[in-house]
Design a protein that fits this description.
The model has no long low-confidence stretch (mean pLDDT about 90). The protein starts with a helix and ends with a strand. The protein is α+β, with helices and mostly antiparallel strands and about 180 residues long. Helix content is about 20%, strand content about 25%. The chain is globular and about 60 Å long. It has 5 helices and 10 strands.
Length: about 180
């Protein structure tokens, strides 16, 4: 259960301590009882924890009144379609390649045997992973699994000493997704 839901139910919870990245914080509004911020942050950043800590530093209590994600990876609200804009032509004009959709995820390059494991949803051990760096991934971090020819094969998560497939891509699927 997400932390914010448990808190709303009145449970006593403690947010896990982890290293996160805050690239930029801009104050966009200051009112008598509110502060508006625009944040550019990395994965796993708890905006509600920042609000709590900021209020505590100001000697008061605080909460998040409104939270709006404006981008995630290669997807942004600037590229979104609204209501009557959703025509086949507009949607087709905003499709991006599966490679581009996976471009901001940690890349895991697989051998041919690794691709076979991924396509069948089997666990992927380090012996079929070609590149380094995936071992540093957080367990909840999405990983993009690629074939030797650069074709995206699946999304996965790090588990124990390997990777578990979360969502496979069809071998002959069109290489586009909606932005």
């Amino acid at each position: 259960t997400p932390l914010h839901r448990r808190m709303r139910r009145g449970e006593e919870v403690e947010a896990p301590v982890r290293e996160v990245e805050l690239y930029e914080a801009t104050v966009v509004e200051v009112g008598e009882e509110t502060i508006g911020l625009r944040l550019h942050c990395g994965k796993g950043f708890y905006v509600r924890s920042l609000a709590r800590d900021l209020a505590g530093a100001l000697g008061t209590l605080g909460y998040v009144k409104e939270l709006r994600r404006t981008s995630s990876g290669p997807f942004s609200i600037d590229s979104a379609l609204y209501g009557d804009q959703m025509t086949a032509e507009e949607i087709e004009g905003r499709l991006i390649s599966l490679r581009e959709a996976c471009s901001t995820l940690r890349r895991v390059e697989l051998s041919d045997d690794g691709v076979a494991h991924a396509r069948h949803g089997r666990p992927i051990g380090p012996e079929v992973i070609v590149n380094e760096g995936w071992q540093e991934a957080l367990p909840e971090e999405s990983l993009a699994l690629f074939a030797p020819d650069g074709e995206p094969v699946a999304l996965g998560r790090r588990v124990d000493q390997g990777v578990r497939v979360v969502r496979g891509f069809a071998a002959n699927a069109p290489d586009v997704v909606s932005r």
